[in-house]
Amino acid sequence: MRFYTKEYYTLMMSLGVTEMYEPVIDKDYTDEEIEELYQKALDKYIEEERADYDAPPVLYLDEDGDPEDLEFFRMETEEYENREPFDEEETAGDFEEIYRDNLEDPDEDLPGWVRDEVDPRILAMYFMPEKIYRKLSEQDAANEERFEALDERADEALEDMLADLPEEYEELMETLEELEDSYVLGIEKSGDEIELKLEGWDEEGEEAVYTLRFDEVEVLEDEGVTAHSGKDEDGDTESDCELVYSEMYIEDGKPEIHMMFDNNGLKYLTFRCAEANAYMAVIE
Fold first, then answer.
1. CA 3/CA 138 separation, integer angstroms
2. How does DSSP classify residue 253?
3. pLDDT range class, residue 279, cuts 50, 70, 90
4. Bridge-partner residues for 189, per DSSP?
5. Model confidence over 157-214: pLDDT tens digits?
6. Cα–Cα distance for residue pair 246/176, rounded to 1 Å
7. What is the pLDDT of residue 61?
8. Dist CA 92 CA 106 (whole Å)
9. SS3 (DSSP) at 183
């Protein structure tokens, strides 16, 4: 990758991380004080959810001041006026589930030094000791400045890359862009062939599986990209591999594909095709 690099993505994902957290007194908390923090976080969550539940529908106007979707607004208003009473007990259960999930899977966007220094129970409630909060806020500001510089250069590089692509590769590049942030269902690298199956969306907005097959390839960089996927208990797709970004260049008259995956860490896969042998197929 030449501009959508690991540094770019890591910085982007770390932006504004302190916005989710509230500073608390910097001290060693007893179990009893942790319980008090939990009650404080729970009360805050319930009140925020209650306020959102009780907020009436909003009628949006277009540029001429006319209602954008009056029928939908009327439907929302009727549902709002006939809604059930706010369920505080269910909301408390939701918060407990969020808390447990955060304990099991700590926020990966937080730097490792934060997770090492702060009681995970405190972070799971979206609290953070003041000293750590201030230090992380300063780091946030530096990261944002660095990212803005990288993002500006990336925008320029993307325009140059697209402008330099021959017409016969435009469709492939458009497909790769559309599949960014898609789950990789499987990847096969055999000899001089690479095949990826990704879960995406068709033109009608329906789920579809895209097969990208590249023949006569020369692998230039492979950091061990693999994919294991399946369905969860609700029937939704799960995968340990996600396509993050793609770039394409023409080198010595041959298409060169650069990919970055989130696959138990960020990993690159870069390869060059002998000819315009990449093709796509949608499987319903």
1. 25
2. T
3. low
4. 194
5. 999 999 999 988 888 899 999 999 999 999 999 888 899 999 988 777 788 899 998 9
6. 6
7. 82
8. 20
9. strand
Enclosing H/E stretch for 225 = none
SS3 143: helix
Burial of 1 (0-12, 13-18, 19+ CB in 10 A): buried
As a whole number of angstroms, the distance between CA 136 and CA 102 comes to 19
88: its two tokens? 């505080």
Q: CA-to-CA distance for 196 and 28, rounded, in angstroms? A: 49
Could you report the per-residue pLDDT of 4-39, keeping only the tens digit for each?
999 999 999 888 889 999 999 999 999 999 999 999
- Up-side HSE of residue 232: CA atoms within 13 Å toward CB? 6
Residues 159, 12: Cα–Cα separation, whole Å: 20
Question: Are the beta carbons of 130 and 24 closer than 8 angstroms?
Answer: yes
C-alpha distances (whole Å) from 150 to each of 133, 140, 169, 280 are 25, 15, 26, 31
**69's tokens:** 């979707």
**CB neighbours (10 Å) of residue 25?**
11
CA dist 77 and 56 (Å) reads 7
**For 206-265, what is each residue's pLDDT tens digit?**
888 999 989 889 999 999 999 999 988 888 889 999 999 999 999 888 899 999 999 999
* Cross-strand bridge partners of residue 211: 197, 281
pTM of the model: 0.76
DSSP 182-194: EEEEEEEEETTEE
DSSP 68-137: S-HHHHHHHHHHHHTPPPP-HHHHHHHHHHHHHHHHHS--TTS-HHHHHHS-HHHHHTTEEEHHHHHHHH
Strands 22-24 and 127-129: parallel
